[in-house]
């Protein structure tokens, strides 16, 4: 079986187990969890790294690809290895296409 096919089967099994056992998907499936309060505050959990930052845009690496946040007056209020808190006027979010 090809490597890509094995990874796809493994991911499918993990997704089904996550649902059956009612586990948090972001922990088991290596996907980010975003919490947004209005358009001013955002917490992103389970991100992999800060790729780009300025007051008009932020790019974060995640287990599912790059998330782009656009806005004005953006700033990083808090940042740990697992979580990042972003403040400012958030205008748009862009997510990778995941199949």
Note the topology.
Layout (H helix, E strand, L loop, with lengths): L2 H18 L4 H4 L4 E5 L3 E5 L1 E8 L2 E6 L2 E15 L3 E12 L5
Antiparallel strand pairs: 1-2, 2-6, 3-4, 4-5, 5-6
Q: What is the 3D shape?
A: elongated
The residue fraction in helices comes out at: 10-25%
* Beta strand count: 6
CATH fold name of the largest domain, please? Immunoglobulin-like
N-to-C order of helices and strands = HHEEEEEE
Biggest sheet, strands in spatial order?
Answer: 1-2-6-5-4-3
Low-confidence stretches: none
User: Hey, roughly how much beta strand do the residues contain?
Assistant: over 45%
Based on secondary structure, the structural category is alpha+beta
Largest sheet entry: 6 strands, antiparallel
Q: Would you state the CATH class of the largest domain?
A: Mainly Beta
Give the N-to-C terminal Cα separation: 20 Å
CATH architecture of the largest domain: Sandwich
- Could you say how many structural domains there are in total? 2
């Amino acid at each position: 079986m090809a490597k890509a096919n094995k990874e796809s089967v493994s991911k499918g099994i993990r997704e089904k187990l996550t649902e059956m056992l009612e586990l948090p998907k972001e922990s088991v499936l290596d996907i980010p969890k975003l919490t947004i309060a209005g358009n001013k505050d955002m917490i992103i959990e389970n991100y992999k790294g800060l790729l780009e930052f300025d007051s008009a845009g932020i790019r974060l690496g995640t287990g599912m690809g790059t998330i782009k946040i656009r806005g004005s007056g953006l700033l990083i209020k808090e940042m740990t290895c697992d979580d990042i808190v972003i403040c400012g006027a958030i205008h748009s979010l862009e997510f990778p296409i995941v199949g």
